[in-house]
Amino acid sequence: MNHRLLLIAPLTVGLLALAACDNKTPTTETAGQKLDSVIVSTENKSEQLSADAKVNAAEAKKDTSEALSDAAITTRVNAQLAADPTLSAIKIDVDTSNGRVRLTGTAPDDQSRDRATTMASAVSGVITVDNQLKIDKKS
Q1: DSSP states of the chain as a string?
Q2: I need a surface site. Which of 6, 12, 27, 44 has the fewest CB within 10 A?
Q3: The pTM is what?
């Protein structure tokens, strides 16, 4: 039994010495530090979300403005065509996208087809006119 005690005693002393020499510095944050970190992170995310929301709102406003503008152009072109005695009786579809007007349908003759292009081009906000009107051979 003496031999066992002689072996266990130095081991115990060695383990106690190692435990006493362990100079671990606390690397864990305190509750206050954790809270500060969470607050900073939340503020950063909030600022990013706010910036993203402003960009999205600006894009939505632009898209809405362009859509309203295109709708207004379409309405004005339709009104111009309806005022023409030759074109008013003909079904002409007017589509507008980003100020670019496309005319589809039929015209009674080449002069009316050309007049439709001229009338649509004169409307404020029109950038180009793509006249795809076909000549109605029945007229």
Answers
A1: -HHHHHHHHHHHHHHHHHHHH--PPP-SPPHHHHHHHHHHHHHHHHHHHHHHHHHHHHHHHHHHHHHHHHHHHHHHHHHHHHHSTTTTTS-EEEEEETTEEEEEEEESSHHHHHHHHHHHHTSTT--EEEE-PEE-TT-
A2: 27
A3: 0.54
